[in-house]
Amino acid sequence: MIFSEKFNRFFEDPSQYRGPCGDYGVLYLLRRDIDRCLNIECGRRETVLRELRKNRNIPSEIDKPIALFPAATTILTGIDLLAKHYEGTDVGHVGRRFKIFIERYFDLDNNNPRGACDQEIIYQFRNALLHSYGLYSKKYSKTRNKRTIYIFKAMAENGPLIEYTGKLSHPIGLTEVRKKNPELILYDGYLYSIDLYKLYVRFEDAIDHYREDLLANTTLQYKFDYMYNFYGSIEIKNSQ
After folding, report:
1. Mean predicted confidence (pLDDT) in 136-156
2. What's this model's pTM, rounded to 2 decimal places?
């Protein structure tokens, strides 16, 4: 399959339903599933996105989402998928790939002190949802000798993507086994709100920007072409 065919399949418009059998771009299926979770009808997705980008009102089409947490989990998985294609590798360094992609393609604001940069906050939100389907993540930085707990609150208001809501007044003590002996380890706790509708909009914007770069950059095309062979498409067959 040549690059243009892979490109068109991967970035196929999710508002165009087809099925149930055939070859599908993974990104197409992923975006279609996100829309279903948010209760966005196929023919209304561009209208919904336009309204979400324009103001803070929640369009009436999606004021009753079916499954917000699965939608957020799928979006974060989608960032992982895009980051693999952008970097041209799936070997190690998951966090590095993830953060490089969102730093490049998400409209982030790192001007205000939040306890961590925005890409790190979103990555820890990813870890909380994908690893435990929860809103809690912790990180130990050996180079900085810093232990941090991230405590999240999920919002659905189409407000700011990230809001830093404070730091716990006292460190959290966790008992961890180190060298077969239990030790009391102290972690600083930071509180953040993540808006799931804004996450959806930023994800869709990131897809558009990456797609534009991909068409203009032969190095990105080579990386995409290689990773597509492993992660780009799924064939769904009839059992008969």
Report:
1. 83
2. 0.90
- Exposed, middle or buried, 190 (CB in 10 Å: 0-12/13-18/19+)? buried
DSSP states of the chain as a string? --HHHHHHHHT--TTS---SSEEEEHHHHHHHHHHHHTT--GGGHHHHHHHHHH-SPPPGGGSS-S-HHHHHHHHHHHHHHHHHHHHT--SS-HHHHHHHHHHHHS----SS--SS-HHHHHHHHHHHHHHHSSSEEEEEETTTTEEEEEEEEEE-SS--SEEEEEE-SSPEEEEEEETTEEEEEEEEEEEEEEEHHHHHHHHHHHHHHHHHHHHH-HHHHHHHHHHHHHHTEEEE----
| Residues facing residue 178 across a β-bridge | 181
- Upstream peptide bond of 20 is cis (omega within 30 degrees of 0): yes
For the stretch 189-204, pLDDT in tens is: 899 999 999 999 999 9
Determine the average pLDDT of the residues in 6-33: 92
Token code pair at residue 208 = 């558009």
Residue 216 has pLDDT above 80, yes or no: yes
